Amino acid sequence: MVCVMDGERALWKRLTAAVVGVVCILDLFHVLERLWQAAHCFHTEGSEGARAFVTDRLARLLRGEVGYVIGGLKQMATKQRLGGSRRRQLTAVIGYLQGNRRFMRYDEYLAAGYPIGSGVAEGACRHLVKDRMELTGMHWRVPGSYNPKLCMTE
Question: DSSP string of the chain?
């Protein structure tokens, strides 16, 4: 069993307490958000420098070089004497990456054929479930939301 989730610690704790042997994967799209935050500590938003920064770190993460990415961000903060809000933002990104490092073995996940992003599942939920539950004239209750015969009223 494979589970792709964001970095919310409470979700991971619940999952690992309830299911044994599950492969936990940090959703790559959540990591990308953090990489963009880090990029904007050093480069102007929308710049080629920011894009190159994210592209380089993403490639490293996909090769399994999480430690090098984290170490590089720390070095950049020191070498460029980053301070104030940019330093706090980068520190938060580094903390997120460090805290989720064990769920970021993307090179292994890809080699095993596992998904590393939840976009397809989230999109399906957003469209299929939402469309079904918001049909005109329908009223839904939580206990029966999975079975329209039990909860649909007109």
Answer: -EEEE-S-HHHHHHHHHH-SS-EEEE-HHHHHHHHHHHHHHHS-TT-HHHHHHHHHHHHHHHTT-HHHHHHHHHHHHHHTT--HHHHHHHHHHHHHHHHTGGG--HHHHHHHT-----HHHHHHIIIIIHHHHT-TT-B--GGGTT-HHHH-B-
Residue 56 placed within a domain:
yes
What is the greatest pairwise CA distance in the chain? 65
Instruction: With beta carbons less than 8 A apart as the criterion, state whether 6 and 99 touch.
Output: no
Number of domains in the chain: 2
* Tens digits of residue pLDDT in 88-137: 999 999 999 999 999 999 999 999 999 999 765 666 566 566 666 666 66
Structural domain including 134 reads 127-151
Asked whether residue 122 is assigned to any structural domain, the reply reads no
Task: Tell me what pLDDT residue 151 has.
Answer: 41
